[in-house]
Write a structure and sequence with these properties.
This protein has 220 residues and is an all-alpha fold. The chain has helices spanning 4-20, 25-32, 36-44, 51-61, 73-91, 104-119, 123-143, 149-170, 176-188. α2 packs across α4 (51-61) and α6 runs antiparallel to α7 (123-143). It is elongated and about 60 Å long.
Length: 220
């Protein structure tokens, strides 16, 4: 059970974020589909939001639910609970389940949103959405004609990077096999002949290559 201080501080954070977004309580209540009376109680520190209410408020405020809480254990648990689905999506890279596949432009938009979440450390959003996105991108890759596959690889690798951000921050030992599968999937998903991907293999969370543009291998 949250302490009195935790309840009060969560309400203060929600109110401060709302004001920073230049929203009234009525604006936030309408946008989040949370009753105005409930929102007032939350901001006053007399009610603690349920997971569904917190998610709705966070979505309306365009922030990760973790930004509205002072204690991270609740958010950590939610991300940990989602890790098996992330691992399953990674493990199914070579043999994805049947399912719908959106147009590539729509998939690219979804990946851009996931990248925005990664840059904003919105781990709850990533963990909730990345398994389905990885599965759909894998289906798109396997169903695309060979000439079109390189176009799918780029968003797929970017989606793996988002999964990587969550996995390396939250994964326990039980998920290390999934992390190794993720690294292998990233490495094997590069377009053939893409010069940007000729760097030595590295951990997917290590950032960009250090090779300078225009420098040839072996030249000092």
């Amino acid at each position: 059970m949250p302490t009195t201080d935790t309840i009060r501080e969560a309400g203060q954070r929600i109110a401060a974020t709302r004001r920073a977004r230049r929203m009234t309580q009525d604006d936030l209540a309408r946008s989040s589909f949370v009753s105005l009376s409930m929102l007032r109680k939350i901001e006053q520190g007399t009610r603690f939001p349920s997971d569904d209410t917190l998610d709705a408020l966070a979505a309306a405020l365009h922030v990760d639910p973790s930004r509205l809480l002072t204690g991270h254990q609740r958010v950590d648990n939610r991300v940990h609970d989602a890790l098996p689905a992330v691992s399953a999506a990674i493990a199914a890279h070579d043999d994805p389940d049947d399912g719908p596949v959106r147009a590539l432009a729509r998939l690219q938009e979804a990946v851009e949103e996931a990248v925005t979440w990664r840059l904003g450390s919105q781990y709850v959003q990533i963990s909730r959405n990345i398994p389905g996105l990885l599965a759909e991108l894998s289906r798109a890759l396997h169903s695309a004609p060979p000439a079109e596959q390189p176009r799918v690889v780029s968003p797929l690798v970017r989606a793996y990077r988002c999964a990587d951000a969550v996995a390396y921050k939250f994964a326990a030992r039980a998920h290390r096999s999934g992390l190794r599968a993720l690294e292998q999937a990233i490495d094997t998903s590069r377009p053939p002949g893409d010069a940007r991907d000729r760097c030595p293999r590295r951990s997917p969370h290590a950032g960009r290559c250090h090779r300078q543009p225009g420098r040839q291998p072996g030249r000092r």
